[in-house]
UniProtKB/TrEMBL annotation, chain A:
Annotated transmembrane regions: 20-42, 51-70, 76-98, 110-135, 155-172, 198-226, 238-259, 271-297
Region forming the signal peptide: none
Membrane-protein topology: Multi-pass membrane protein
Organism: Hoeflea poritis
A family per Pfam: ABC-3
CDD domains (alphabetical): TM_ABC_iron-siderophores_like
Protein name: Metal ABC transporter permease
UniProtKB/TrEMBL annotation, chain B:
Family: Belongs to the ABC-3 integral membrane protein family.
Protein name, per record: Metal ABC transporter permease
Keyword Transport listed: yes
Membrane topology classification: Multi-pass membrane protein
Primary site of residence: membrane
Annotated compartments: Cell membrane
Keyword flag Ribonucleoprotein: no
UniProt xrefs under SUPFAM superfamilies: ABC transporter involved in vitamin B12 uptake, BtuC
Spans through the membrane: 6-30, 37-56, 92-110, 157-175, 216-237, 244-269, 275-296
Keywords: Cell membrane, Membrane, Transmembrane, Transmembrane helix, Transport
Organism (species): Hoeflea poritis
């Protein structure tokens, strides 16, 4: 069923001209979606895009009817997308109006707009179906997207739109990043917050409308939501997160269209979303900054350090060690013999630990503001955390003017 | 209309109304808890649940599908919690990740499995086919007392009635806990109300209603009815019980007007066709909400 050579062909853009154009469009779209989605996530408005995407449907229906009315082909893609964009704007305005002018919170406003616009869209679709005007097949593919059977013109239109959206996102990335990162600073440096938010919503709309035909209106929000949430596991920095999210989005678009082109009955839209979901799951498990496994590893490493330090201090005080884990850590580093008596290295390490413990105590007393940081750092060798000058100063204070150990 | 009125109009209309009222009652609490979009998420993940149940059992019998859908809803609720806690993102984003991923999985599984001969597709899942739930034996009022004819009633009618009864029993039995944990979770916790459990029970019930309604009328009515009537009712009053009553009224109004407009209403304006009743009901509920947002007495909140 899965033909590896067909998959490689698709990955190297040799699976047919249309497929290659669509793949390029999907990559650009994925990048734009991932990038815009990060801003959306940082502004805490991810699900507004869900209302927007569902609100496109009545516009698609009306555009089809209008174009058919004037004797044209209702399937003309740019016309349908224009209709989608207009009704998405109306839907967005309704969400804004409901949240600003009434007591309803944004979740209720989003859900209400999403469902009633979608219902209206379905009504229009059934009108078109029962009118029986020509090939309305093109409209159904707006629900779940489809790339098979796409006309060459449509592929060009979508790729060009995706290129345009990606270009806009690239041009406006600075003000958007500033507003998301630090609203106050952005305002003082002369950026109009409200206008930037409007720009963001416009970009979200552009990504949604471009994605309609490929991914479908139910799933297009995934392009805006999954990559940034996945990127969050890779980094704590806004700038890096934006880049990572764009890459995850582009990779989803690329691999998704290739898989869809090489496996029968693998619709492009849902497959792109599933690839994004797999990348998300991998990030959640394995990413270095917040991934589950790395978190577990860090917790283990930390507990190991605590056991090591406690054990060494006990050795220095000549106390017996009973804790099983502590014994295991000390034994594995050959700091104690099998019978629990310290080795030569263990005695040395114990003295070092006691000295560093004392220096850290002085450091914490000198820098009460950094108490939290100091608490985390004090288990590490002091030379790795402080400069030689700082250590020398701590040692001077440690000895005190009289060279006697200061009171704790 | 005549003889077929009961079977062709009243029965599907009642099915729509039952689904609408069950959803609207629960929707009040979702709206008040700012969890409206849980209804959206749950309605989406019902699809993979149903598809997996179909693949496992190989049939489209009802109970496996209901079970599969309910399991999918609960799994998704757990996943949303997981993503929210691990990723430290807002609940909306966590929801978005989970429901799009699961819905995409459902669509791909549906395309890959051979479900075509059983006539089940994504469109059906989205907006159902309320118009087809007719009662052909229901010729006249007498058939309401005819046991044989009654056996031909669409089974969805009884299932949705049961779901509504379950919702009402839940509301009456856990009224105090539900209200306290909705309005003041901290106080509720302090007085020993199991806040998390109540929340989980509410979501489970939403899932059960969503699944039952979904099978009869599609996801779109479910989402619309979970949110629009309750949101509109919230703009009418500051008191909870009147709000619940308003939401029931709005739900009934949406179902009846929407169903009528989709069928007979279209004929009235001279067009020879009918349109999706589910879509029309959702659209009407949106119009009711818009009217309330423009003119309802409490639209600005307690001060307004």
């Amino acid at each position: 069923m899965f033909d590896i050579s067909a998959f490689v062909d698709a990955l190297t853009f040799r699976a047919g001209y249309n497929t290659a154009i669509v793949a390029i469009g999907a990559i650009l779209l994925g990048w734009a979606g991932g990038t815009v989605g990060t801003y959306l996530l940082l502004r805490q408005r991810s699900l507004v895009s869900d209302a927007l995407s569902h609100a496109t449907l009545p516009g698609v229906g009306v555009a089809f009817l209008v174009m058919a009315w004037f004797g044209g082909s209702g399937r003309f893609l740019p016309g349908l997308l224009l209709g989608a964009a207009i009704s998405a704007m109306i839907g967005l305005a309704c969400v804004e109006w409901l949240t600003r002018r009434t007591r309803l919170k944004s979740d209720a406003a989003i859900g209400a707009v999403l469902s009633s616009f979608f219902g209206l869209g379905i009504v229009l679709l059934t009108v078109i179906q029962s009118l029986g005007i020509g090939r309305q097949a093109g409209i159904g593919s707006f629900l779940l997207g489809s790339t098979s059977g796409m006309l060459r013109n449509e592929a060009y239109t979508l790729a060009a739109l995706a290129l345009f959206v990606a270009f806009l996102v690239f041009v406006f990335r600075r003000p958007l990043t500033l507003v998301c990162f630090d609203e106050t600073f952005a305002r003082t440096s002369g950026i109009d917050i409200r206008r930037t938010d409007l720009l963001l919503m416009f970009l979200v709309m552009a990504v949604t409308v471009t994605g309609l035909r490929i991914v479908g209106l139910i799933l297009v929000v995934a392009l805006l939501i999954i990559p940034p949430v996945a990127a969050r596991f890779w980094t704590e920095k806004t700038g890096t997160m934006i880049v990572a999210s764009g890459l995850i989005g582009a990779a989803s678009g690329f691999v998704g269209t290739a898989l869809s082109a090489s496996v029968p009955n693998f619709p492009a839209g849902p497959v792109i979303v599933l690839v994004a979901a797999v990348l998300f799951a991998l990030s959640l498990l394995f990413a270095p900054a917040r991934g589950v496994f790395y978190g577990l590893y860090r917790a283990r490493a930390f507990s190991r350090k605590v056991h090591r330090r406690q054990g060494l201090l006990a050795i220095l005080r000549g106390e017996a060690i009973y804790d099983h884990d502590t014994l295991k850590v000390l034994r594995s580093e050959k700091l104690i013999h099998g019978d629990g008596t310290p080795t030569r290295a263990g005695l040395d390490a114990a003295e070092t630990a006691a000295r560093e413990e004392a220096l850290w105590t002085i450091y914490a007393r000198n820098n009460p503001d950094a108490a939290n940081r100091a608490a985390r750092m004090r288990l590490d060798p002091i030379a790795e955390r402080l400069t030689a000058g700082e250590i020398a100063e701590l040692e001077r204070q440690f000895a005190g003017p009289s060279g006697v150990l200061p009171a704790r | 209309m005549g003889d077929f009125y009961i079977g062709l109009v009243l029965v599907p209309m009642t099915i729509g109304a039952l689904a609408a009222v069950s959803c609207a009652l629960l929707g009040n609490f979702l709206v008040l808890r700012k969890q409206s979009l849980m209804g959206d998420a749950v309605s989406h993940v019902v699809l993979p649940g149903i598809v997996v149940a179909f693949i496992v059992t190989g049939s489209i019998s009802v109970w496996p599908m209901l079970l599969g859908a309910a399991a999918a809803a609960l799994i998704s609720a757990l996943l949303i919690e997981l993503v929210r806690n691990l990723g430290k993102v807002e609940p909306g984003a966590a929801m978005g990740v989970v429901f799009t991923a699961l819905f995409a999985l459902g669509v791909v599984l549906l395309e890959q499995s051979d479900t075509r001969q059983v006539h089940f597709d994504v469109e059906h899942a989205l907006y159902g086919n309320l118009e087809s739930l007719v009662w052909l034996s229901g010729m006249d009022a007498q058939s309401l007392f005819d046991r044989q004819a009654l056996a031909d009633l669409p089974p969805q009618l009884a299932r949705l009635a049961l779901a509504l009864v379950a919702v009402v029993i839940f509301l009456i039995a856990f009224w105090r806990q539900l209200v306290v944990s909705t309005f003041d979770p901290v106080f509720a916790q302090a007085t020993g109300v199991p806040v998390r459990l109540v929340g989980a029970a509410l979501i489970s019930l939403v899932a059960i209603v969503a699944v039952t309604a979904f099978e009869a009328v599609g996801a779109i009515i479910t989402i619309a009815m979970l949110i629009c009537p309750a949101a509109a009712a919230r703009l009418m009053t500051n008191r909870l019980i009147p709000q619940l009553l308003w939401s029931v009224l709005f739900a009934l109004l949406s179902a009846v007007v929407g169903f009528w407009a989709a069928g007979s209403g279209m004929a009235l304006i001279g067009s020879g066709f009918s349109v999706s009743a589910a879509g029309m009901i959702a659209a009407v509920s949106g119009i009711i909400l818009a009217a309330c947002a423009l003119a309802a007495p409490q639209r600005r909140g307690a001060a307004g």
